Amino acid sequence: MDRRNFLRTAGGGSLAMILGAVAESVARAGEVAWVGTPFARDPLAGSCLLPLGDVERTLGAMLDTVVPGPTTDPEGTAGALEACSMNILLDGSFPFRQYADMFALVLDGIATDAHGAAFADLPYDQRLQVLVTAQDQLPMLRLAFRAIRSAFFGGAYNGIGLRYVGYPGPNLGWRHVPESSFRVAVCEERTQTGWMP
Amino acid sequence: MDDRNVVIVGSGFGGAIPALRLAQAGQTVLCLEQGERLTEKDFVQDWSFKAQSRLFVTYTSKDYHVILRYGRGLGGGSLTYAAAMLRSPSEVFEWRDRDGYRVWPASVTRAVMDPFYEKVEAEMDIVRASWADVPRAGGILGKMLAAMGKTADRSMYPIHDCLQCGFCMCGCPFGRKKHLGFNYIPRAEAAGAEFRVKCRVHHLEPDGSGWKVAYFDPWNVQRMARGERVVLAASALETPGILLRSRPWMKDLHPQVGKNLNQNGDVAFLWRVPESLAPTYPFMGRNNAGVITYAFWDEHKITIHPGAGPPALVAAMDVFSEKGEPSAPMGVPFKHYVRDHYATHLFPSLAIGLVDGEGTVTVDGNGVVQFDLPLTDRLKAYIARVAGVGQQIADANGAELLRTAGDNYEHGDAHPLATCRIGDDGERAPCTPDGELRSHPGVFVSDGASVPGGTGVNPAHTIAANAERIAAVLAAK
Ligand SMILES: Cc1cc2nc3c(=O)[nH]c(=O)nc-3n(C[C@H](O)[C@H](O)[C@H](O)COP(=O)(O)OP(=O)(O)OC[C@H]3O[C@@H](n4cnc5c(N)ncnc54)[C@H](O)[C@@H]3O)c2cc1C
Ligand code: SF4
């Protein structure tokens, strides 16, 4: 099933499916109480931190390369910057803040050596190459890229990335949705009990 | 100063279980837990970092390659784990490391552990998932194995009437996952044990025939509690941390404290399934997706179970496709790939297996825990073996095993073990088979730190059964 079909049957969808599940769950003897959930946040409501000084351009370009936003993604959809993923680098509860300046220095250094221009001034393809090289030189960057990706796709600061991948979010359970399980044995089992002797 | 028969540090499996058994045996028990008392009303279906950092403590290895975390709160990891409760296969207890050393004590075999597993199953009401409880992602792995003539078994959980909402690792907001706050902890309280939350233990000091436990109370005031005995159950990351911070008072601390860190052989994969198996809907259903395969156990000593989960779980992995885009885990192709495949064609899986623990937990100058989990040749060879099995499954099904840089996959995350292990050899194992710290009698370790090696399957049941076993010794003293 491709994405369009997924959205038609499940996502597009997905609200109808969730509401359906809600209605079914509630219909089934009010089994569950609705839980208040922060997913109801306005997807644009998160407050994005911005770095101060010269590094802002470089780090902004780094984020826009890891998960490209409207100016870089030909489809024009929001990316890491719009999802406030910069917060990952600047919020003191993650191990990156003290390295943010170093990240910018390293990227500008590699960019200048390889392409003769500051990282933020390179076209997207060259920025991508620089990041691939840089993460091998500075393992912490690989971790930062993972964190930036998971902040975007995981909805760390707002729901932009979750919506982008069609993740339906909080729900009252998929149990009654036919596609949620095959419901019948799909293979032989090795044990009688569920665990090995 | 509080003075009890026993002071327990941490309220996960390793702490809550001795709390119940010792209180039942008539001992006075105080359990200090750094996290909050959380109930279903506090659990929110929210993967945001803010929500997750309330529930988990996360550490990154010194070389930034590996992440390890544990659940915090009254009930420890049981609040936010995915709740697969599996007995370890017999061979786990017979396992010998690279030096031929049997890591479990000779007196602890699967037959010896079985009655303790049974106790945990009875207290926590652990049941086998029905096929209707197996989420779609689990069914897909089952089908992939069936296509190869292999088996997969439905797993065991303390979950009843699961709604399959897919948020177990945020804490079950519907009260269907029966964490320790449903069983051991209230029963221990009823038997007289006291659990004190938001109390973070810093170190231990000897005090005559007993021990003083120094902790920060909820207002950050340093206090002391005294116990004739102390049981450490603060997780495989924090238990050695507490002991290492205690060195000024605990002279001659056993040199193996903090060594042998084992990540339980965890290796995470991402599979892209062919059209015939799509959609995967990895967000539907319990996060441990219902089945586990033992089909590769005999030959490789590994098990594999599918996961279900949020996009972050998928997108955070350093994966790329060998068959074209994305060629790196970033950029426009990666973004589009995740969008086009997450909900329909991808599902994550975790392999677990037996490999030597070669990591180390230390504390820095401020007493903060740090860890190292080097990618040794042995670990690399193990990961290659696991990847080979994953590839075999993919090839047999027209699926793709997404690759990672250097084919190192994600090793680590959720199952640290063995940093203060029990064992027969006094030089290699800081604790006796009964969990008592060899260098400091009266201090016991009963959590994942004391489990001496990989468990072959998800570890919580073995940690719990081992805690029952150690608690039985303590209760008899
Ligand atoms: C996301 C996730 C999913 C998982 N899913 C599964 C699964 O499906 N099946 C399975 O078998 N295992 C699973 N695990 C692993 C399982 O949760 C752990 O192995 C298990 O909880 C470890 O038990 P423990 O007693 O060693 O420590 P924990 O359960 O981690 O408990 C330690 C407790 O000590 C407290 N503590 C720590 N330091 C201090 C201090 N200084 N002072 C006071 N208190 C302190 C902590 O707050 C915590 O509450 C999962 C883990 C994670 C992170
Ligand atoms: S999937 Fe089931 S056990 Fe997990 S949080 Fe939802 S209802 Fe609870």
Word description of this protein:
The complex is a heterodimer of chains A (197) and B (477). Chain A has 197 residues and is mainly alpha-helical. Chain A has helices at residues 3-11, 14-27, 55-66, 86-90, 100-115, 124-137, 139-153, 160-164. In chain A, 46% of the residues lie in helices and 0% in strands. The model of chain A is unreliable at 1-45 (pLDDT under 50). Chain B is of the alpha+beta class. Chain B folds into two domains: 1-83 and 86-125 and 171-262 and 358-365 and 415-477, 3-Layer(bba) Sandwich (FAD/NAD(P)-binding domain); 130-157 and 266-353 and 374-408, Cholesterol Oxidase, domain 2 (2-Layer Sandwich). Helix content of chain B is 27%, strand content 20%. Chain B contains twelve helices and 22 strands. Chain B has helices spanning 13-24, 49-55, 90-94, 110-124, 136-146, 184-190, 235-245, 297-300, 311-315, 331-345, 377-397, 460-476, and strands spanning 2-9, 29-32, 56-60, 67-71, 127-128, 153-154, 156-157, 194-196, 200-207, 210-216, 222-232, 267-272, 291-292, 302-306, 319-320, 346-353, 360-363, 369-372, 400-401, 403-404, 410-411, 443-445. In chain B, strands 1, 2, 8, 9, 10, 11 and 22 form a seven-stranded mixed beta sheet that branches. In chain B, a hairpin with a 6-residue loop joins strand 3 and strand 4. The longest helix of chain B has 21 residues, at 377-397. The two termini of chain B are 24 Å apart. The mean pLDDT of chain B is 94. At the A-B interface, helix 1, helix 6, helix 7 and helix 8 of A face helix 2, helix 5, strand 6, helix 9 and helix 10 of B. Bound molecules: flavin-adenine dinucleotide and iron/sulfur cluster. Iron/sulfur cluster (SF4) is lined by residues 159, 162-168, 172, 174, 176-177, 286 of chain B.
